[in-house]
Amino acid sequence: MVDAVMTNRREFLLRSTAGAFALHQRRVAYSAQIVAEAPLRVLILGGTGFIGRHFVRAARDRGHLVSVFSRGKTDPEISTDVEMLIGDRNNDLSPIMSRDWDAVLDLAVYVPKWVRSLGEALRGRVKHYTFISTVMVYHSLGGASEESELEAYAGAESPFSLEAPGTQYGSLKVLCEREAEAQFPGRSLVVRPGTIVGPGERLGAFTYWVGRLEKGGEVLAAGEPLAPIQLIDVRDLAEWTVRLAERKQTGSFTAVGPAARFTWGEFLGGIRAAFSVPTSLTWIPLSWLMERSLRPFNSLLFWPAQVGIPGSMELKVDKAVRHGLSFRPLNATIVDTINWYRNLPADRQRDSLIGFDEKNKSLEDSMARERELLAAWHVVQR
């Protein structure tokens, strides 16, 4: 019955997504011709990782003069029209200290002393500062908005002595946000994204589902199909954030999507609709899977919607939408992610997936484990 319902939803999503995807393609063709009114001198810290590359591209496509500050240890895969500045924000900020910047985008900061040292190094030289935070700053995630209570730091050490967040990830991000305003008063923007997906995704869970459903056959779907989920395409996040920086927007914003309620079943149905292979979803209770040593966060994406972090997929995004955040169709993210994945070398394909558990990371290993679980489930159901 559930699968029949999901089949109907899949057909609806296929029709509606096709139209939305065509509209998106027209919007992309149009927006590609639009650049900012005046090019900005943009400094991006953390511009060589998953989200960083998309932020660099978004800023460059808007016509800005982009500089990327990094340790030079990650293959940047960035075009030659981007300036690379090599240093270390722990002990060597000299490459950026004598420069003036219209906008600074800080993408990968976990402890407040990094924000403080950056502020001290760039004192008086930054017109606008953007800090990429996380939805984990909210004390209670269920239905949280920008006005909700934030996590409080409870560590024994001074937060400004820490090199890594440990178990205090959310609360340290809160302190980073406050330090951002202290160092760049009246000029700071805080963006709080949730689950970020799209081409280049390093956690690999979204990529796993795209790759798995492309194979077709009987697919194990964990939990409740009506459980809500939220995610955001990395390109939507990057393009919107760059536009906010251009406007010198201040304040904090929750950045998740889509704008309307979206379920786990609709997510899988939307991916399934992108492929022509025969596919059926077999829904298995989380309790039964957890008895067989599968655990949230170490396997199937979006289990936090049902266990572990109640309400983590029901945050309010109204404020961001009012300020211009928009979402490309799921089909666009699916197609671009699978094309990116197919073009990876074999070893990187394996490293880009999270399957059923840490021992079964490749798609082939995960499918073998999936068949074992499905066979055991069908025995129980006889």
Description:
The chain has 13 helices and eleven strands. 42% of the residues are buried. The N terminus is likely disordered. The protein is an alpha/beta fold. It is globular, with a radius of gyration of 21 Å. The chain has a seven-stranded parallel beta sheet, with helices on both faces. Strands 7-9 form a two-stranded parallel sheet. A two-stranded parallel sheet has the order 8-11. The longest helix has 30 residues.
Regions with pLDDT < 50 over 5+ consecutive residues?
Answer: 1-33
Order of helices and strands: HEHEEHEHEHEEHEEHEHEHHHHH
Terminus-to-terminus distance:
17 Å
Strand order of the largest sheet: 3-2-1-4-5-6-10
How many DSSP E strands?
11
Q: What does the oligomeric state look like here?
A: single chain
| Secondary-structure class | alpha/beta
Radius of gyration: 21 Å
Largest sheet: 7 strands, parallel
Average of per-residue pLDDT values: 85
What portion of residues belong to β-strands? 5-15%
Q: In percent, how helical is the residue content? A: 40-55%
Q: Layout of SSEs?
A:
Blueprint: H1 2-31, E1 41-45, H2 50-61, E2 65-70, E3 83-86, H3 94-97, E4 103-106, H4 112-121, E5 129-132, H5 169-183, E6 188-193, E7 196-197, H6 205-215, E8 217-222, E9 232-233, H7 234-246, E10 251-255, H8 264-273, E11 279-284, H9 286-290, H10 318-322, H11 330-342, H12 346-351, H13 363-381
Parallel strand pairs: 1-2, 1-4, 2-3, 4-5, 5-6, 6-10, 7-9, 8-11
